[in-house]
Design brief:
The chain has helices at about 10-65, 70-75, 115-120. With about 120 residues, the chain is mainly α. It has a domain at about 10-80. The relative contact order is 0.03.
């Protein structure tokens, strides 16, 4: 049998394969971190977009609330009048028809069971 000989070429190849494996492991770890950070960036970007839309909607509400139209609408809803308005309460014309409330019908009293059976057997139709 031939003794196991280690020559310089085989040692170099083994060291090269080991270094290549370490480089691949490091590259894989960096790719995982890139994917995690990309997902986090997408999440934060969505949150920022939502916050900006909320801010724009709130600014629009503030602009409307400080406008004269909003003040006028609020005053009308609270039954206030403007200068020059004549306050009035509508009154009926006098020819309105009044409707009588219907009287409820008395509820019939149920017959006792023996009378129901008696009527079923002996009553003529």
């Amino acid at each position: 049998m031939k003794p196991f000989s280690l020559n310089l070429r085989r040692i170099g190849i083994l060291i090269g394969i080991g270094l290549l494996a370490l480089i691949m492991i490091g590259f894989n770890a960096r790719l995982d971190e890139l994917n995690r950070l990309s997902a986090e960036a997408r999440t934060r970007r969505a949150a920022v977009t939502q916050a900006m839309q909320t801010q724009a909607a709130l600014q629009a509400q503030i602009a409307y609330a400080t406008s004269d139209a909003a003040v006028d609408e609020s005053a009308r809803e609270n039954h206030m009048i403007k200068e020059g308005d004549i306050p009035g309460v509508p009154i009926g014309m006098g020819n309105e028809e009044t409707f009588a409330t219907p009287t409820p019908l008395p509820t019939p009293t149920p017959l006792p069971n023996w009378q129901v059976w008696w009527n079923l057997f002996f009553e003529e139709r």
